[in-house]
Task: structure prediction
Amino acid sequence: MQKHYLIIALFVLILVTACGGPRIKLFSDAGEPLKEFTLEGRGSDKILLIPMHGIIIDTPKERFLAQSQSMVDKVVSQLNKAEKDDRIKAVLFEINSPGGTITASDILYHEISSFKERTGKKIAVSMMDIATSGAYYVSLPADMITAHPTTVTGSIGVLFLQPKITGLMEKIGLSVDVKKFGKNKDMGTPFRDSSEEEQRFMQKSVDDMGERFIRLVQKHRKPNQHALAEISTARVFLADEALKLGLVDKVCYLSDAVRETKQLAGLPADARVVVYRRTEFPDDNYYNASSAASEGLNIPAVNIELPEIFVLKTGFYYLWPGAISVER
Result:
């Protein structure tokens, strides 16, 4: 019984915090300017390390008494700052992500490509646990892609996620009366099953977006026909398999990727490795996963957050669903 009361209380709390009432802020937010911190090196030239962790979205992530920047906002703000610094010769993205929405992934692909074209700075990627689907999509403009020996990557395909509640409605005796202009106006509604024609329309959209992904892989990675056929199955690959298929250039640790990035940019071994954050950390290092948006004292004392699987909305995704968290 006590467990049931706890569940009800949590549900009510989520509903209350979702309302459009005044937002209470107990801590400073991401309005503070980004600051540069050096992780290693003493040279004048620099490479910038940008972490990309979590689902790729272009909307802020809601938390209890707090709101964090979206992945797109975080990355673009750091690229804009790096563009103004002539001493930054390369950007290394440290990626740990299952992917995300199609639009957010495509925005980051465009922003990284445009940054590279405008500045001439080198782009490198170091994949960690997971860099699948949309996370691989945003890696495509890189001059060098490395994977950790235990990385899972691939899943080069498209999902259309859409809840259906028709069975539940039948059980509880509910129905929805819809008046519409245009026979396809309510296509995709969760209140009824899709017709065969509607399913064909949606599959056509999924196919078109999937083919766009494959075309970009062909453009940037130039796989042979055998590799392309394997990649097009949208399965995931371990690092060594990805290397054989040409999806990555090297299998190495993050420290090796830093060294390789310096060489890629023609920098000496003592070139500095820097990050942009808002809070200084003692004994800072490559593996500090703190983002530019939510760090140190900016983390609220109470942080209630829905599991990732419940945050996803109806829509098209470059996402590996096998990596979505269902627990916190």
